[in-house]
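SAMPLE LOG
Freezer: B-3
Tube label: C17
Construct: single chain, 80 aa
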Amino acid sequence: MGIGPLGLPEILIILFVVMLLFGAKRLPDLARSFGKSIKEFKKGASAIEDEINATEEPESSAPAKNGAGTAAKPKPARKE
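STRUCTURE (predicted):
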């Protein structure tokens, strides 16, 4: 089990140091606030994505005025 270049021993050492720094009583609070932060971040990211999709839809689904711009332009003839 590893996360990127970190192996199991490295992860255990990091968790031990975190426990020493913050104490066992504060770890659940830190994990809870971290979870809330991730939830808010995902919520904000999806809101931005929805906003981007909403602004793209009217442009692509809007009909062209007077049929202008709907016909394909002919390619210029090749010069040999």
